From TrEMBL, chains A, B:
It comes from Streptomyces echinoruber. Pathway: Cofactor biosynthesis; molybdopterin biosynthesis. The lineage of its organism: Bacteria, Bacillati, Actinomycetota, Actinomycetes, Kitasatosporales. Pfam families: MoCF_biosynth, MoeA_C, MoeA_N. GO terms for cellular component: cytosol. This is Molybdopterin molybdenumtransferase. Catalyzes the insertion of molybdate into adenylated molybdopterin with the concomitant release of AMP. Transmembrane segments: none annotated. GO terms for biological process: Mo-molybdopterin cofactor biosynthetic process. SMART domains: MoCF_biosynth. InterPro entries: MoaB/Mog-like_dom_sf (IPR036425), MoaB/Mog_dom (IPR001453), MoeA-like (IPR038987), MoeA_C_domain_IV (IPR005111), MoeA_C_domain_IV_sf (IPR036688), MoeA_linker/N (IPR005110), MoeA_linker/N_sf (IPR036135). Residues 211-357 form the MoaB/Mog domain. It catalyses: adenylyl-molybdopterin + molybdate = Mo-molybdopterin + AMP + H(+).
Amino acid sequence: MTSAAPRTTGPDHLWSVEEHLEDILATVRPLEPLELNLLDAQGCVLVEDVTVPVSLPPFDNSSMDGYAVRVADVAGASEEFPAVLEVVGDVAAGAAEPLRVGPGQAARIMTGAPLPPGAETVVPVEWTDGGLGQGPVGGMRAHSAAPEAAFGHVRVYRPAEARAHVRERGSDVRAGERALTAGTVLGPPQIALLAAIGRGTVRVRPRPRVVVLSTGSELVQPDEELGPGRIYDSNSFALTAAARDAGAIAYRVGAVADDAETLRSTVEDQLVRADLLVTSGGVSVGAYDVVKEALSHVGDEEAAGSGVEFRRLAMQPGKPQGFGTIGPDHVPLLALPGNPVSAYVSFELFVRPAIRTLMGLTDVHRPRTRARLAAERAIGSPKGRRQFLRGRYADGEVTPVGGAGSHLVAALARADALIVVPEDTESVEPGTEVEVVLLG
Amino acid sequence: MTSAAPRTTGPDHLWSVEEHLEDILATVRPLEPLELNLLDAQGCVLVEDVTVPVSLPPFDNSSMDGYAVRVADVAGASEEFPAVLEVVGDVAAGAAEPLRVGPGQAARIMTGAPLPPGAETVVPVEWTDGGLGQGPVGGMRAHSAAPEAAFGHVRVYRPAEARAHVRERGSDVRAGERALTAGTVLGPPQIALLAAIGRGTVRVRPRPRVVVLSTGSELVQPDEELGPGRIYDSNSFALTAAARDAGAIAYRVGAVADDAETLRSTVEDQLVRADLLVTSGGVSVGAYDVVKEALSHVGDEEAAGSGVEFRRLAMQPGKPQGFGTIGPDHVPLLALPGNPVSAYVSFELFVRPAIRTLMGLTDVHRPRTRARLAAERAIGSPKGRRQFLRGRYADGEVTPVGGAGSHLVAALARADALIVVPEDTESVEPGTEVEVVLLG
């Protein structure tokens, strides 16, 4: 029944947003790294410095389709007075045994193929007659259609400097250099580099597995019939989608009825696949607040870090919140309030940073900016509570959508920002500069 | 052997970046929509206007844990002179048959529970003695621990106006209103709304299935031994990761050797699971450019839209490109050059917009901005070709990383932007304002 940031709190303590967040981030630890296949590591954080084992490119190679020649043999060549060279064969990309190019000779060479011994430079095929004897050509004929073109003679119409159109060994990266440093997030270009230096697997922190469940005997699954007093379960869908969006592998368990024993056994069942548990509903001061009732008792309360603490936060929406760790492995659990807008705002403020901390990211928060409030009238806010209003942000202005009611899920679907109204502010006039959380 | 935007082009035509892109976007069509489960539709584009079938909330309900009472019964109530009411039972969330509240009576009510007939307002439990007779309480005792608290008497210490702490039926959305319009991208808040109004499935355009294969007899898979003249296959990894990042379901086939028949049969095999095919390598003017050789012949060349056209673009990197459709279903195919940086830049400019067009998105391009060039010396650029240099962007400034060489994959992994140097510019001085494509 403890949390990692001990403080002198009683049940009457009103937690600030920062205190609750600090407690979560002080408790949640980045997941243990493991070796993953390259494509399974996409979006993950590298935990090792990766050194280049072999220089890139690994050998001098041609950057053009053309002819590998000696500089002296093409010196002074022109369309009027071409150099005529004996073609000794093809050097294709992937060729194992390169030809040797002697004086007066040329090897037909393909982009990426190793510069053969004896050759000093490459002339692009467009500077030659391609072996056809009829002036400059646009390209080579396919080897399969004209195998004889690998031999015979080629006319070269322009000179070339030494090592023209040659990519030097190690000109990209050299063996022993650091390719990527620990802490790098692996996107497509980093995956390109790792593959290019021969790394098929890489040591990263995995994506966290997040189990999402909603609670409430009033909840009915979408597409089923809505009886009297019932509403549809939206939180289990929204929080699963949001957890994925934050980078997690999310499992939606669905809705659990308001029965402490059922909830407790469901949570215990799910622990095996959870790096983080997220619940919604049942955290307030009612007589049927099943999460509060059930989860204060899961796990060994004597063990450090076990047990979930339920709190009141100085915020709106999202006043009631639970946080702690459960089970023998001390899996962190965030218990969010049940109103869909409260649950979503709580996710953005607390669960998303927890997921990103598990991933080992350092940048765990949504970006914030300041914007001018575009509204027809002043917006009110309860004293002593930080309010997060839904808004639309564009070009330095933010416009509130919907009202302050925490059940306004229709307005939430039109919002792309949260407007932050501080605890000590009771009214914000139109035109005032406000802080805005950008929801992406 | 045609493409959708006919123009008077011969093999010598040098295509502009815009012409090639226009041709692709005029050919690629959004995928046919289908009905998907809500969580499978995350990130997809809605193709129907969704109307609210049932008002939200579907009934008047309590926004607090407290007591449902008549206004007159609590008028003038104070701590000194509390109103004492008979508690007739609990109204929990999900209760099927609400109690009736008569004069002098109260029903204990939970957040989200329907306001019972006869009740006019809700007093929060914190304004009462919770039935315990010992002054204001902080919350209710759990029903499972104290079932008797659903009955007895409650002291109410404060009056309440009519419909205080009551969320009215339809105050969120009303039946018949439009919840979401066609074209909306489904993120977590939109999924919340759809679930809340009872929609378990929704009609969207699916994620495109993108098959990625690289070509080249020089390619070795990472973690295998690198023979002479060989390099590691990085494009199949990078392009698969990039396709996913763009929103696709991507399948990495891996590397195919430079043999036209093998490539042709591999592509034909893959058509069954492809909404888009992406190849790398083998598109230039060499004698072993297998993609060019093989794919000009796939499909019925007589049929409209079949066949792949190979082009030279006025850009660097990425000069040789192929585009067309193949197979009986005219699956679009983009054939990218094989150099890793050329392939990646081509992906960003051409494949990503194609994927996002298949998804039905209207915003298909990476964002662009203008930035001041932060460099020690002028950067050169070939006349007549639009150059895309890799750079790092921050605070209105962009700094080139690595050089212009298209093989500099190590520098690419440090870049987060492309610096665009127009066709008619041969040199850009430090401090000049340049166009920048933001890759993040």
